Amino acid sequence: MDAEPEELGFDGQRLERIVPHFRRYVDEGKLPGWTVVVARRGRVAFHAHHGLADMEAGRPVADDTIWRIYSMTKPITSVAALMLYERGLLELTDPVARYIPSFGDLRVYRAGSAVNPGTVPASEPMRIWHLLTHTAGLTYGWHHAHAVDEMYRAKGFEFGCPPGMDLAGACDVWASLPLLFEPGAEWNYSVATDVLGRVVEVASGQRLDAFFAEEVFAPLGMDETAFSVAPDEVDRLAALYTPNPAGGLLRNTAMGDKATREPAVLSGGGGLVSTAADYHRFTQLLARGGELDGVRLLSPHTVAYMTRNHLPGGADLADIGRPISADRTYQGIGFGLGVAVVVDAAAAKTLTHEGEYAWSGLAGTAFYVDPAAEVTAMFFTQALPSPRTAPIQPQLRTLVNQALVD
């Protein structure tokens, strides 16, 4: 820790409630192990581990454990796009087709089956801000909620991409499939940030991994964040687990081992691995308005703009969103440029403050930044899908904020 909790306005005994609360999820076989980090005003007030990073090997969670952060990649890709926006290399209103021509002839689903869908031409171009806000009309195959989701799966897109395909090829296939709705009309969690990653490549003239490494990770000192784990560091990678119908957890080798190989598709929507220390530096960049240790990636005005609600008409996700998770509230939550934003804490029924922004990952990782309280918090585990029997995100907020006493 950087400071005693009391120095930062926390009641240390109340903050310690985090440990027994989340420990029981390990004891009940719902999580293999976890790490929690809570900071205020840039100083770590609480840092704890419990359980195992690898249950079969008996390897405990440690400070240097490497985690698959899945969709916590998305805010990093969004920051990269906004860096290019600040440099005048793209506009938020630019049509995506300016960078990926296959998005120039979009059609929108109206009726029918996945085999024989009825579609109409899109009346509005898909724009960069649609990608950043998940209002593009794209989807994920793993939603299993719509005929278009089924079409994604039929093309080989569920939890990954077909073998032999790169990011440019994946984008062309997604552009050929119908949109769920007119761009800008609704919110649906989707491959939009993967498409945004391809826009970053075209606008910058660099592969996404190179842009991240040179423009984001090296300046921030995020030396252990990448699209795969180096061969000599594999023994630090947490194992990936899924629920066992009979109780407990099963190791998911098929998905878990992907992190040990360089991917063909550089997924800006979910491809990174990282450590708690590295991702902490990214949260501090955001909390400090785009600057950390003398390195500035974004203007504070851009970060403020990124972390306000950009949904049409000031709507929240309950108004125009398509639900994707049972443990995430939609009332009182808007969406900014790459992050969810609390617009009404009372409506959200979560102990937090308006203006808090956050996102999470498929295997149970989560973070939030609360500017009003000057608090950041992170949770790391590797249980796939994000465990609905363990409502990590709202409980983490409650446990942190009930300990905040100044």
TrEMBL record:
One Pfam family recorded for the sequence: Beta-lactamase
Source organism, top-level taxon: Bacteria
Domain Beta-lactamase-related residue range list: 21-400
Full protein name: CubicO group peptidase (Beta-lactamase class C family)
Organism this protein belongs to: Pseudonocardia cypriaca
